[in-house]
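2024-03-11 09:14:02 INFO worker-7 job=invfold-0412 stage=load source=structure_tokens
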């Protein structure tokens, strides 16, 4: 892989409702605005020779990718390493409950029945290495806010979660080359 474009999925119904979803088996639709965001992502990528579009197992990521790649014969690859954080028993809860849990726990603590933020960071480091290993020159990967933030900060040599980047807009492209993804993976793996 020479260039990777990471993009968060378009706005989902649960984004608007302020609820969390970390289970890929729960179908969460894009809003009308989310579909428009995905179409704008497609316009931004229209003049790029995308050879592969990877996506997480979440319906909102696949739907965003499908809209963005519409009219192009780009193969798709589902990759669980790109999934959102598994929030366990907080599935479907409001964002306030999610934030309260985060405030009371460390990044090493597992969500009840789920995974920890540290696990997610290491999973996204594996995802970065998987993307780098691909034979296609230009890859788009549609995934989730926390993972993209983690890789952006780590590629800059910063803490994956407390680095300078905190907010990732829906369906906004972020470009990485192979060296940046390798650097991100190494930064995550060398922590602790």
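2024-03-11 09:14:09 INFO worker-7 stage=emit residues=192
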């Amino acid at each position: 892989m020479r260039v990777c474009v990471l993009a968060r999925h378009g706005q989902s119904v649960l984004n608007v409702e302020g609820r969390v979803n970390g289970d890929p088996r729960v179908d969460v639709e894009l809003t009308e605005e989310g579909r428009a965001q995905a179409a704008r992502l497609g316009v931004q990528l229209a003049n790029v020779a995308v050879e592969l579009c990877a996506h997480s197992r979440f319906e909102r990521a696949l739907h965003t990718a499908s809209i963005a790649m519409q009219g192009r014969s780009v193969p798709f690859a589902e990759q669980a390493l790109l999934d959102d954080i598994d929030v366990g028993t907080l599935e479907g809860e409001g964002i306030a409950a999610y934030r309260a849990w985060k405030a009371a726990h460390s990044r090493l603590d597992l969500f009840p029945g789920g995974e920890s933020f540290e696990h997610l960071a290491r999973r996204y480091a594996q995802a970065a290495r998987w993307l780098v290993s691909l034979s296609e020159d230009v890859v788009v990967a549609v995934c989730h806010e926390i993972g993209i933030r983690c890789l952006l900060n780590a590629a800059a040599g910063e803490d994956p979660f407390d680095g300078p980047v905190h907010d990732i807009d829906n369906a906004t492209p972020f470009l990485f080359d192979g060296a940046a993804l390798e650097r991100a993976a190494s930064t995550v793996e060398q922590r602790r």
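2024-03-11 09:14:09 INFO worker-7 stage=report msg="The domain at 3-189 is CATH 3.40.50.1240 (Rossmann fold)."
2024-03-11 09:14:10 INFO worker-7 job finished
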